Automatic annotation (TrEMBL):
Protein name: Protein turtle-like isoform X3
SMART domains in the record: FN3, IG, IGc2, IGv
Signal sequence coordinates: 1-22
Region entry Disordered, spans: 781-817
Residue span(s) of domain Fibronectin type-III: 508-605, 631-724
PANTHER family: BASIGIN RELATED, PROTEIN TURTLE
TM annotation in the entry: 732-755
Gene responsible for this protein: LOC106466535
InterPro entries per UniProt: FN3_dom, FN3_sf, Ig-like_dom, Ig-like_dom_sf, Ig-like_fold, Ig_sub, Ig_sub2, Ig_V-set
């Protein structure tokens, strides 16, 4: 009855708390301070509405805890939160008494008083209290007692402490406080010395102090180093039964060396068949006594002193012994009419030289029997088995140490091999989600076992693949069922295999195979073998990414044309490693990725004039807008010099040539104006700037790689005076005037020459035309004949002697000859 009533009240209280929980308005936090382990009273008071007592509930909350840590209602047991059992109670009107204070008790507490019969204007009373639990400091992280370091290495000592108030941590070396410097950093109590010197060797103290006390942690820093193997083990050859000794000597400071020996990368202490015959001496030497044939292998000595990484050294132990037969089967079967093997299980070190065979107590030389061959493992292979090969066989192996004996007699029986009575068809072609049954039956003595397997080594589906009476049935065909299957017919006589191809249609394409890549400085050519396309035309998408960049995203490019199985990707970075994979797709969607292959582009021959290519293979010099590749180092020794032709800006290439420079840009500005630039500048480390106005200039040079731009060089300043500018300007004007005059004179001379040449040509044409007209008329009047010849001009002297009549008659200066 009491439990039911308590449950009801608890439910009532929780509901009431869920509906009315809230923090007091406009409260100022009171501060209460107490020591660790003592008691504290968190004050809280309230007033009844209108001074009339009414039922009320007191709730104490702690910031960071969702459920109240204390709920009180008159007449019922209080609710106490987890971690406060036996430590909280009410005192006074609503104050909370908290005993045995812990560090986690520190925080902000809220007291809320809710009245059942409350008026709207008097909703709740309470208080806000911040509790400070003072505690002396205590270490949460302490540096080790002894630290071994090497000169020049980095030293890090970690020290952290808790307490209230938060303790201050101070580091001392040899009782002298340490301060931060270029080689020493102190951050949140941790001490770092970036490069240890001899002066840093000594005693260090980490001191944590607050108002409640202080504590210290001492550390001794000693020059030391990891273990080093001075005498490593050497390869060893022993006869079986002898003892073997593998030396492994080492030195270290501190000298607390531990040796561990491994056999073929397995701890010898865990090999029960070997550990009973081994002893590890204090100097690290491994003894094996006696040795056995199984002891041959790789032995590794590992030494460690707690500093750095363990040192390792390995050596081979070869245990030699006479040739021996390890197993002699009582009966072996040979398939009649087929190829068969008579096995002799041999083990030898060094390898066996030859094996003697006997058949039916008579020597049997394989070389003297047609179709019988000795195999490298010691067995005999018979090309075509006949009944005469049946009998009792014995083999005896020999090596350089002889033999341990012959095998037991092995009865070899010739029997008819199993045969297929029903074979599966060469190909089965089915739609996805359909069913296929592939039959396979056989017979033989003893009765053969029939089972199916995939040629790619994958397991048959357990849920959908059923083997029954030699038949393989696959229900609800899926894409992964596509492939080649083998039916195996097996008994003690022989193993026969037949295969068939299952094609599952109506699927996304299968992953391409045999992906290869060939690279140059800026491109990669991929080729692959197409897989089954799902009975739909398929296309390809190449995915590739740069490996040298952290979390580099995959990029994609579609292969064109769709049926192509080779493709070249351009616009790659030189001397960089990439990952490539090919994705196939058809109308049903994307298929599977091919295996990922890697390829590294060749270094860039930038001195040979080879330039990068864009995504289509065209040569270009890129404008780097989104730098994504490794950055070249800045140019060096930038200088600016005034010359007669202008300002000559010159520089030296970057000191680090790991990232080749494709071209340069020179930037300049005056005062606070934006930067302007000249370029790109290829195959040169200088630039001539002309016609700059007077003023104060700043210059800098950028080096560009194919995919990125490096940092700017150091800036160089120069003031271009007005005088030099005027001189340059006047020289330019004078040169322009003189050039103009010379050009004008040359033009006049050329014009006169042209006119004279034209007039001379016109005169010659007129003379010829006149002679052709006048000469025939004059001949006819004189009764003469026309004579061939050319008209000749009358000399000016003759014309003057003949007088005016003749001159008027021959007003035209031509006469017929």
């Amino acid at each position: 009855m009491f439990l039911n009533k308590s449950c009801q009240v608890a439910a009532l209280l929780l509901c009431f708390w869920a509906l009315n929980t809230g923090y007091p308005h406009k409260y100022f936090a009171e501060k209460v301070t107490a020591l660790l382990g003592e008691d504290a009273v968190l004050p809280c008071s309230f007033e009844f509405p209108k001074g009339v007592p009414v039922p009320y509930i007191i709730q104490w909350h702690k910031k960071g805890i969702k459920i109240p840590i204390y709920i009180w209602y008159a007449g019922y047991p209080p609710h106490i939160g987890e971690g406060y059992d036996g430590r909280v109670s009410l005192t006074g009107q609503a104050s909370l008494n908290l005993t045995d204070l812990q560090e986690h008790d520190q925080g902000t507490y809220t007291c809320i008083v809710n009245f059942f019969d409350r008026s709207p204007d008097q909703k709740r009373n309470g208080s806000l209290v911040h509790l400070f639990v003072h505690a002396p400091p205590h270490f949460s992280i302490k540096p080790p007692d002894v630290v071994y370091v090497n000169i020049g290495e980095k030293l890090a000592l970690f020290c952290a402490a808790g307490g209230t108030p938060d303790p201050d941590i101070t580091w001392y070396m040899d009782n002298i406080p340490l301060n931060e410097g270029s080689n020493i950093k102190i951050n949140r109590g941790s001490l770092e010395i970036f490069k240890v010197r001899e002066s840093h060797i000594g005693d260090y103290v980490c001191r944590a102090r607050n108002s409640e006390g202080s504590i210290v942690a001492n550390t001794k820093v000693i020059v030391a180093g990891p273990a080093v193997i001075t005498v490593p083990p050497r390869n060893l050859t022993k006869l079986e039964g002898d003892k073997a000794e593998l030396i492994c000597e080492a030195k270290a400071l501190p000298a607390n060396l531990t040796h561990r020996w491994l056999f073929n990368d397995k701890d010898i202490s865990q090999l029960t068949w070997l550990v009973t015959r081994t002893v590890v001496r204090t100097d690290g030497t491994l003894f094996i006594n006696p040795t056995s044939a199984e002891d041959s292998g790789l032995y590794t000595c590992e030494v460690f002193n707690g500093i750095g990484t363990p040192e390792r050294a390995s050596a081979y132990l070869s245990v030699e012994y006479p040739a021996r037969v390890t197993y002699s089967p009582t009966i072996q079967y040979l398939p009649l009419g087929l190829s068969g093997i008579i096995r002799c299980y041999v083990k030898a070190n060094p390898p066996f030289l030859h094996i003697k065979w006997s058949k039916d107590n008579r020597p049997f030389d394989p070389k003297s029997h047609h179709g019988v061959f000795s195999l490298s493992n010691g067995s005999l292979q018979i090309q075509r088995v006949i009944h005469e090969h049946q009998g009792w066989y014995v083999c005896t192996p020999y090596n350089a140490y002889g033999t341990t004996g012959k095998s037991n007699k092995m009865e070899v029986l010739v029997r008819d091999p199993p045969i297929f009575t029903i074979k599966p068809e060469e190909r089965y072609q089915q739609r996805v989600n359909s069913k296929v049954t592939m039959p396979c039956h056989g017979t033989g003595q003893p009765k053969p076992d029939i089972h199916w397997r995939r040629t790619d080594g994958k397991q048959l589906s357990r849920d959908r693949a059923i083997q029954s009476n030699g038949n393989l049935t696959i229900r609800t065909l899926k894409k992964e069922d596509h492939g080649r299957y083998e039916c195996v017919l097996q008994n003690d006589i022989a193993i026969l295999v037949t295969s068939t191809l299952l094609i599952v249609e109506g699927t996304t394409p299968h992953a391409p195979t045999n992906v290869t890549v060939e690279t140059s400085a800026f491109s990669a050519s991929l080729s692959w073998l197409p897989a089954y396309d799902g009975n739909y035309p398929q296309s390809y998408v190449i995915w590739y990414r740069l490996l040298e960049q952290a979390e580099s995203p995959w990029r994609t490019i579609r292969v064109d044309p769709d049926e192509a199985s080779t493709f070249t990707i351009y616009n790659l970075q030189p001397n960089s490693e990439y990952e490539f994979r090919v994705l196939s797709r058809n109308t049903l969607g994307d298929g599977m990725f091919s295996p990922t292959v890697r390829g590294k582009t060749t270094p860039w021959d930038f001195l040979g004039g080879v330039y990068p290519t864009d995504a289509y293979g065209a040569t270009y010099i890129p404008t780097v807008q989104k730098p994504s590749g490794p950055k070249p180092s800045p140019p060096r020794n930038v200088t600016v010099q005034e010359t007669e032709n202008g300002l000559l800006i010159s520089w030296l290439p970057p000191l680090n040539q790991k990232v080749p420079v494709a071209f340069y840009y020179v930037e300049y500005r005056t005062q606070s104006k934006p930067w302007k630039r000249w370029g790109p500048i290829k195959h040169a480390t200088s630039y001539l700037a002309k016609e700059l106005a007077p003023g104060h200039y700043n210059f800098r040079v950028y080096a560009y790689s194919i995919m990125s731009v490096g940092q700017a060089s150091s800036e160089v300043s120069l003031t271009l005076a007005a005088e030099s500018y005027e001189v340059t300007k006047s020289r330019a004007i004078t040169a322009g005037v003189v050039g103009g005059i010379l050009f004008f004179i040359a033009a006049i001379v050329l014009s006169v020459c042209a006119v004279k040449i034209c007039n001379k040509r016109k005169r010659r044409k007129a003379e010829k035309a006149y002679m052709m007209v006048t000469c025939p008329v004059a001949e006819a009047r004189n009764g003469g004949h026309s004579h061939g010849g050319s008209p000749s001009p009358i000399k000016k002297k003759r014309a003057n002697e003949d007088g005016g009549t003749l001159g008027r008659k021959l007003s035209n200066p031509f006469v017929c000859g």
